[in-house]
Design goal:
The chain is mostly helical. The protein contains seven helices and four strands. A hairpin with a 4-residue loop joins strand 1 and strand 2.
């Protein structure tokens, strides 16, 4: 079965998934954020088949998330280093970790975000960079951007209509 490409979709979520939507890719990025750079380290950490790891590393390199850097001439060996684009993926990983801890860690949290100045466990939230206000469903809504195509406009408009109906219904029921 041929995989669908999202590259032509004018949706930032779809285009992001085109680069990192395969689960091995996200786990490789997790390990890279934890400092791993070498093929053997990724393979040992993930238990992934070498051919699959090779494909995923190549895809992440082609997407500009990792850079392949030679560290040995004889034999030629490479490591995979996060690029600025790859490092920008960190908040996504932190959000996935927090979401997973909140909803799927039945045995307890296997990973936590710690404030290294205080030693406190941190509960990450997404905030508006301009106001510092936490992003929440009641106050913030997705809207079509200037580059949105017709499909995106239609999808977002339907969402905004459902949102308005829900707000109206909740106001009516609270009166």
């Amino acid at each position: 079965m041929q995989r669908t490409s999202f590259d032509d979709m004018r949706c930032p979520i779809a285009r992001s998934l085109e680069r990192v939507g395969e689960w091995w890719s996200i786990l490789i990025l997790r390990d890279a954020m934890l400092g791993m750079t070498r093929f053997d380290d990724f393979q040992a950490s993930l238990g992934i088949a070498p051919n699959m790891l090779t494909r995923r590393l190549r895809a992440l390199t082609d997407a500009g998330l990792l850079e392949r850097v030679r560290y040995s001439e004889k034999p030629p060996r490479y490591e995979y280093v996060l690029t600025p684009r790859g490092r920008d993926f960190r908040p996504v990983l932190v959000a996935l970790m927090a979401w997973g801890n909140r909803h799927f860690a039945v045995e307890g949290q296997a990973m936590q975000l710690i404030d290294e100045l205080t030693g406190d466990i941190v509960e990450p939230v997404m905030v508006d960079a301009k106001t510092g206000e936490p992003i929440d469903r009641a106050r913030h809504a997705m809207h079509a951007g200037p580059a949105a195509d017709e499909r995106t406009h239609a999808r977002v408009e339907a969402y905004l209509q459902r949102r308005a109906q829900q707000h109206a219904a909740s106001k009516t029921s609270s009166q």
